[in-house]
Prior knowledge:
The chain is an alpha/beta fold. It is built from 6 helices and 10 strands; from the N terminus they run βαββαβαββββααββα. A 6-stranded mixed β-sheet has the order 1-5-6-4-3-2. A two-stranded antiparallel ribbon has the order 7-8. It has a two-stranded antiparallel ribbon with strand order 9-10. Strand 9 and strand 10 form a beta hairpin.
Amino acid sequence: MLRALPLAAAILVLAGCSGGPRRGLVVSGQLPEGWTVHETEHYQVQTDATPAAAARLGRKLERILALYREFLPTDRALPRFPVKFFRSYQDYLHYGGEEGSGGFYDEHHEELVATRFENFTLEVDVPGRPGGAKSKRVVRVAMPQEKVDAAIYHEAWHQYMHWAVDSDGDFPAWFDEGMGDYFGQAKGEEEGFELGRLHPEWVEALQEAIREGRHVPL
């Protein structure tokens, strides 16, 4: 999900009014209490998760970055990309994440923002008695690591591509988002990544459209 934050919200955060972390790259004195920085060759992971979780994320980002560079090579020297990794889903939303999302790319600050999904909740239907109306219940969901990684790989693609192309113009959404989903479904293995996996939610949406006659026949 490629998105720019509203200017007013960005000004409040930069001014320190929110009490949350600053945007972009930081030095240790700019971190909120409980936050740490883990730096790799090309990423600065700022997080309130454990140092071990930050180190794992840094390793995954470096590995997927190598794939981005194969697909879209550049002669420019790579920078160190800023990453915010929130442990709490509510803190992620407060920072600017959209409900239901797992990450976003803030193009104004060239920052990847993601979450571990802790305290992630969903509203689900609860069947009533026969003939009775359904009710709603909020449940807490443990998000599989694969979905956490998918959001990070997708947004990290936006971050890399917008730096590598270095253009003020808009990119075609079918390419930018399509490639984000392509890399988002990459599955890490010892020897590298398994690529070309289908996005389960898009497959389900297509199958439903076909059943209901809402698709465009090939």
